[in-house]
Design a protein that fits this description.
The structure is a homodimer of 499-residue chains.
Chain A (H helix, E strand, L loop, with lengths): L9 H12 L3 E5 L8 H11 L5 E5 L5 E2 L2 E2 L13 E4 L3 H14 L3 E4 L9 H17 L2 E3 L5 E4 L4 E4 L7 E8 L2 H13 L4 E6 L8 H10 L5 E6 L5 H12 L4 E5 L4 H11 L6 H11 L2 E3 L2 H11 L10 E5 L2 H13 L9 H8 L12 E2 L8 H11 L5 E5 L4 H15 L5 H29 L3 E4 L20 E3 L2 H20 L1
Parallel strand pairs in A: 1-2, 1-5, 5-6, 6-7, 10-11, 10-12, 12-13, 13-14, 15-16, 15-17, 17-18, 18-19
Antiparallel strand pairs in A: 3-4, 8-9, 8-11
Helix pairs in contact in A: 1-6, 3-4, 6-7, 7-9, 10-16, 11-16, 13-15, 14-15
């Protein structure tokens, strides 16, 4: 959608992004066999990530790389190229971009650094690239970006070879290294991703463009955003406000303090906006502002996996007292209520627990070993009109501890039959799997969120994605994480209700 | 140290604790072969944990367990018994304790629940046990405790088969399940433990007794404490204040809110103290109060591993800009300064980095691949009179990402030699090992803390214990964790300086 003069309008940029994130063919300019060079890291990531379209390495040296013919110039590629990823040194980029324009490339991701972030000469060069691209109707992502990822199009074009699963979380990051680290974590935590863009210096496409794109992107349901500076404050506010009414936007602002601002100015080539006015704007737009990077992930895991609570009344099911206490404290301190549960519910739970159970919310299972009880208690709470959400503490993850017990028992008890131990280990694993599945079903049935906290740190991530289920159970490592996520979800729900 | 009447004084209780934590012989009363029963879990943990003294299973059924003869009554054991661990049902405990008294046992850990926490009848029974024990000069830990751990005496007497390494952190927990979970985490994070006590209902030995014991315990350097109620407020304040001047005491108070208090009352059988007065008391005593369980571990990892900073001025070394920004923001928001570094230092670093490096604090290594530079920059900052502590972001953990890159390269590049890749993998691992060692040496040389943040989540824990080194490098998963720990260490140092 270039305008009549052949140069790109704002809407044209947004429109072109689809082809960049879902290209049919990709050229890697500066492709290399030297391990650890950007042109090697990105090419191998694209190929090993099984990008389904055509891949064209470009390097004046020619030859082959990854079993693919290397073209000396992009213009020599016989077929159309949707996306070019540029990794050659800054001084070559002008010529490369000109070549891309001649070739009719739709978009370029410029990984190369040494532009606006380095001073006036770099800025001039950056403006130059933008005007060449704009004239050719070609969109620039970056420069000075660590790349992009789109699991749905099979495109993994960053230097970090981490390949998160398909999901509904889009992540726009003005910092490449922070973005890459968080994406690696997202993968380890099982958070599904629709898109990752390192927006770099934003010479052309800005955060606001990406947000506007995401508004209509059917693959995206939750947006996380790391920003240091806003290039177009008014538009950002307008777009993010509109978007946030449809899909939650969670934002971390870097450069909130003098120390942070100094650091930020030296690496993105733009002064940070004033944090006070930024905060006011966020509040007005209902954006969820967080203060640390890990919250971006924690919140995106919850928002993208479980239903939104309709109110702030929390039921807690705990394997033991102390956990219930710290969770209830956390809830109260974050504006969540832990209401009493009706007598009828207490009496129904009485049937399953010894007489000295808490008989109130939090429901303390007092170490009960009957595997059905945690789910019975969870369902009783979900059924309650007085309860909007449940936090379930410490059922999942117990398998880790069971394994430790079985291992020592086998080691020291000569009379034990190892077959019996394996069977018990298998049973405990089976129980956890069943529990996780049932949790997904209960969320579906009652349309209320259940937030889990794992007893032991496990290899499984936060999100337990289950094929074919509407919701994915989540298990945070600590009760404080669970409380914080639930509190943010309640805040967002209140914002929506007030709209 | 029983007093003249043969019953235990306060000081006598404290004195007796040493024999409980460092027993020469242990009886497990209620020992069982039934997997998952307390008497099975604790016996196998003690034996598989390689307790070096004698172990006596006790059960009226007799026979053998773990290759050990089972005694029908504790009185039948021919040799002296220092410690008895009681797991039999509540209604049997009076008789068991009487037997222990007859046998001349020094201390009993009563795991059994069903006492003060369940109501008046339970409280009466609990008082009964206490008076029997007191008369016999025998100390009770618990009842309703999940047990104790002392890696130095080789005693792992909890139901959770987690065996943290020897170290200087003592952990007293009024909640068993929270305590067990945190100890499991401590092990995974490499935090070294001198002692863990689940204090349970504190029928006899209270938190204050344990703290007083730790004051003189040469193995303990840092104390973490989870409390819901204080049985003897004045003494607690007096002991903790004295202790905290020698060894930092980090405390999490459960039951701070109405919701938490309700939950707490139902499970420890005691009403929580008023949080306001508790807070004031903590402040006065200089205790470090945290608000979430994970902070107990994070802080103990830092305090027990790196030197205390002498001031609040932080130097930051980062692998990329965004991380530097969020870390600097975090520092400023937590009262830490990120001062400018002298020109001379900037010029010395100039020699190693491209001209567009930040040339200020945070020192942004702008993705430099030269492996020596992170250490050069770290040492330059440590040398600076203007810097009291360094946060080092994202050098360690890079190996995880290198491995991913090597794996994809091997997969898609037929011309690559796999031997070369293994060599590169080995080099990157070697580099990280060297880096960690050097970090320990630099902390020793400059007597300033370096707090690391890992680039990727790894199997290695937070604390990298190195045999023979005074300090252990620490690597937190997030910059916010590093900042929070450093801020607490600065606060403690300021408290000491003001004493």
């Amino acid at each position: 959608m270039t305008d009549i003069q052949g140069s790109l309008s704002r809407g044209g940029i947004v429109h072109s992004l689809h082809r960049i994130f879902h290209p049919r063919s990709v050229a890697v300019i500066g492709a290399s066999s030297v391990l650890g060079k950007w042109g090697q890291m990105i090419l191998t990531n694209v190929v090993a990530g099984r990008f389904p379209g055509r891949v064209y390495p470009v390097n004046p040296g020619g030859g082959t790389l990854c079993n693919l013919r290397v073209y000396k110039r992009i213009q020599e590629i016989p077929d159309p190229v949707d996306l070019a990823i540029v990794t050659t040194p800054a001084e070559t980029v002008r010529e490369v971009i000109t070549g891309c324009g001649e070739k009719g490339v739709k978009g370029v991701v410029i990984v190369t650094s040494g532009f606006g972030e380095t001073g006036e000469a770099g800025s001039a060069l950056e403006r130059d690239l933008t005007s060449i691209s704009r004239e050719k109707g070609m969109v620039i992502v970056g420069p000075n970006t660590m790349g992009i990822l789109c699991p749905y199009s099979g495109l993994f074009a960053t230097g970090t070879h981490t390949r998160p699963r398909k999901g509904s979380v889009a992540f726009i990051s003005q910092s490449g290294n922070l973005g890459n680290q968080l994406i690696h974590w997202a993968e380890q935590q099982g958070i599904g991703i629709s898109l990752f863009v390192g927006s770099g210096n934003e010479a052309m496409a800005t955060c606001s463009d990406y947000l506007e794109y995401l508004e209509e992107d059917p693959l995206t349901g939750t947006i996380i955003l790391y920003m240091e500076s806003v290039k177009d404050g008014r538009r950002f506010l307008e777009v993010s406000r509109r978007l946030n009414r449809r899909k939650p936007v969670i934002v971390l602002k870097g450069g909130r303090t003098e120390a942070g601002k100094g650091a930020s100015a030296s690496h993105t080539g733009a002064m940070s906006g004033e944090i006070k006015s930024f905060r006011a704007a966020c509040r007005q737009a209902g954006l969820l502002e967080v203060s640390v990077p890990s919250e971006l992930l924690d919140l995106s895991a919850g928002f993208s996996s479980v239903p939104l609570p309709k109110g702030n009344r929390v039921g807690i099911v705990t394997l033991g007292g102390g956990w219930g206490v710290v969770t209830a404290d956390g809830c109260n301190e974050r504006g969540l209520q832990v209401p009493d549960i009706p007598d009828a519910v207490v009496r129904r739970i009485d049937a399953y627990l010894p007489p000295f159970w808490s008989r109130r919310n939090p429901v303390d299972l007092v170490g009960s070993q009957n595997p059905d009880i945690p789910l019975i208690a969870m369902e009783e709470l979900l059924k309650c009109e007085e309860i909007d959400a449940v936090i379930s503490l410490g059922i999942v993850g117990r398998h880790e501890l069971v394994q430790l017990l079985l291992r020592s028992t086998l080691e020291v008890e000569p009379e034990i039959q190892s077959a019996r131990l394996s069977q018990m280990g298998a049973l405990s694993l089976e129980f956890e799997k069943g529990y996780v599945h049932r949790m997904a079903d209960l969320m579906e049935k009652y349309q209320k969120p259940v937030i889990g906290v794992s007893l032991a740190r496990t290899q499984d991530g936060t999100v337990r994605f289950l094929e074919g289920k509407t919701y994915a159970p989540v298990f945070y490592p600590t009760p404080e994480d669970a409380v914080s996520v639930l509190a943010s979800m309640v805040r967002y729900q209140q914002f929506l209700a007030g709209c």
